[in-house]
From TrEMBL:
<dbReference type="InterPro" id="IPR025736">
    <property type="entry name" value="PucR_C-HTH_dom"/>
</dbReference>
<protein>
    <submittedName>
        <fullName>Purine catabolism regulator</fullName>
    </submittedName>
</protein>
<dbReference type="InterPro" id="IPR051448">
    <property type="entry name" value="CdaR-like_regulators"/>
</dbReference>
<feature type="region of interest" description="Disordered">
    <location>
        <begin position="321"/>
        <end position="340"/>
    </location>
</feature>
<feature type="domain" description="PucR C-terminal helix-turn-helix">
    <location>
        <begin position="456"/>
        <end position="513"/>
    </location>
</feature>
<feature type="domain" description="Purine catabolism PurC-like">
    <location>
        <begin position="9"/>
        <end position="123"/>
    </location>
</feature>
<dbReference type="Pfam" id="PF07905">
    <property type="entry name" value="PucR"/>
</dbReference>
<dbReference type="InterPro" id="IPR042070">
    <property type="entry name" value="PucR_C-HTH_sf"/>
</dbReference>
<dbReference type="Pfam" id="PF13556">
    <property type="entry name" value="HTH_30"/>
</dbReference>
<dbReference type="InterPro" id="IPR012914">
    <property type="entry name" value="PucR_dom"/>
</dbReference>
Length: 518
């Protein structure tokens, strides 16, 4: 327990007695106690330092009130007055000033030297420090032993809850409470924002300490610890549990990456039509594949967010109870198999999700938000069209990425492939690699347009779209036909191509389509 005036009064050998105190002042903690008869000792005191004095610094009682005011400003919790040294009894002015500033006032009798009071505070401080170290060691040992049980993670968190005297919860990477007591709405929303931010952090909100678990690029969850304000000893225990939980979840993460490898192979098997093999394998893992007609989504996560997206989908697929190996009292685990209508797998830098249409509509907005990416979706798909549906959904994700560009706050990031304009074979060939190649090809034109404002790219798109007829392109652009011809000649010089030849025109049109410029 902290050192307070109440605990000092219990040391009867000191003979201390109160002059003025209320309940709050009696319970205010002391960090240390000093003795001083300086006219202004405040520069040498820290918040929480009590002060002993004999009053020799006061020329008269008029000096007392400003002296106490300066001590109150630096956070002195109590003043001890040594009686019978220079004054008989405690001055009334000192009592009045301490009452005015809510500073506890006590008398130190003549027979008790100030050094005895200071030594007692030192002994109590040492005893308190030893007790907190012992608490830390005992708690860490108990939690480590609990972690060795079959339900190790849940048992360790239960023991942490008992030791800190407040509710504990593990919030998974999907933002749901995996183990423990659901924290308040504000704390839970804050934890979800911490996961979405994708960086290590620790905050206290609504009396709940929230600390992320895992690497910044792959957060595994947030540990929420409630209870009264935590001291250094409690924080040390919580930090050790965060490290232990992080290690346990990292081991699970390695298993999850192995399962991701397996799912990628299973997706290839589904494309080849080996559905029964895939279904049998997934049943052994506690999962399954959705029924026809399918909804196929392709998510293109932001840089560095694919692993977090796979972790989120993996947590959903397993269900929180199986993630943690158990539940604390008050947990609300979901029924096993509740996610079996969803299959996911990585496909290069992207992630493919198969589900029924209703489930896709429920999941996709959250997945896109967490991954900070874009997505394309194709509905009412038969298994034999799976490969084509994945390509179409990927094309829609590309098109949406072109639309939102660098706007991280763009609200709409999901595009239904049915809404795409069908540009035939060229658009179907216009994947990410083709787009990058097209951008390189068009770069000299873009650079020229930026410097001159000639709009060569727009002119070429209109000219080729008008079957290379300058008059028709000029009508679309609102310029003279000679202007169109001059711009085409300038584009030929910049590209180093003869646009009078069909192969050059076809290549340029393909580049414009791939780059989304036509």
């Amino acid at each position: 327990m902290p050192i307070t005036l109440t605990s000092m009064l219990e040391r009867r050998e000191l003979g201390l007695s109160t002059v003025w105190v209320d309940d709050e002042a009696a319970a205010r903690p002391w960090s240390w106690v000093h003795s001083s008869d300086l006219a202004d000792p405040s520069p040498f005191l820290s918040r929480g330092d009590a002060l002993l004095t004999t009053g020799t610094q006061w020329r008269d009682d008029a000096d007392i009130a400003p002296w106490v005011e300066r001590l109150a400003a630096v956070g002195v919790p109590a003043i001890g007055f040594g009686t019978e040294v220079f004054r008989d009894g405690t001055p009334d002015a000192l009592t009045a000033a301490c009452r005015a500033h809510a500073i506890a006032l006590f008398e130190v009798p003549y027979r008790t030297p100030f050094i005895a009071v200071i030594r007692t505070v030192a002994d109590l401080d040492a005893s308190e420090r030893f007790a907190r170290v012992r608490f830390t060691l005992d708690a860490q040992r108990a939690i480590a032993l609990a972690a060795l049980r079959p339900d190790g993670l849940a048992a360790a968190l239960t023991e942490l809850e008992r030791r800190v005297g407040g509710p504990v919860a593990l919030i998974g990477s999907d933002g749901r409470v995996a183990v423990g007591h659901r924290p308040g709405r504000v704390a839970l929303d804050t934890a979800r924002r911490m996961l979405a931010d994708g960086r290590r952090a620790a905050v206290v909100i609504d009396g709940v300490t929230l600390q992320t678990i895992g690497r910044p690029d792959a957060l595994r969850g947030v540990l929420a610890v409630g209870g009264a304000g935590h001291d250094d000893a409690t924080r040390a225990v919580v930090t050790s549990v965060v490290a232990m939980v992080g290690l346990a979840l990292e081991q699970e993460r390695r298993l999850a990456r192995t399962l991701d490898d397996l799912r990628a192979e299973l997706l290839s098997a589904l494309v080849r039509g080996e559905r029964e093999l895939v279904a049998t394998t997934l049943r052994a893992l506690g999962g399954g594949i959705p029924d026809e007609p399918l909804a196929v989504a392709v998510i293109d996560p932001a840089s560095g967010r694919r692993e977090a997206l796979l972790d989120l989908l993996g947590a959903r697929a397993r269900g929180e109870a199986s993630v943690t190996g158990g539940e604390l009292p008050g947990s609300r685990g979901r029924e096993r198999g509740s996610e079996r209508s969803v299959f996911h797998a990585r496909d290069g830098a992207r992630v493919v999700v198969l589900a029924d249409s209703e489930r896709i509509d429920e999941l996709l907005p959250e997945l896109v938000e967490q991954s900070r990416g874009t997505a394309g979706v194709v509905r009412r798909v038969r298994w034999e069209r799976l490969e084509q549906a994945i390509d179409d959904a990927a094309r829609a994700a590309d098109r949406m990425a072109e639309r939102v560009g660098a706007d991280a706050a763009a609200p709409d990031r999901i595009l239904d492939a049915a809404a795409l304009r069908d540009d035939g074979m060229l658009t179907r060939l216009a994947g990410a690699d083709a787009r990058r190649t097209a951008e390189v090809m068009l770069a000299p034109l873009d650079s020229h347009d930026a410097d001159s404002g000639d709009a060569l790219v727009a002119t070429l798109a209109a000219w080729l779209g008008a079957d290379a007829v300058a008059e028709q392109a000029a009508a679309v652009l609102g310029v003279h036909r000679h202007t169109v011809r001059a711009r085409v000649r300038r584009a030929e010089q910049l590209l180093g191509r003869d646009l009078g030849a069909f192969p050059a025109r076809a290549e340029l049109w393909a580049a414009l389509v791939a780059a989304g410029r036509a």
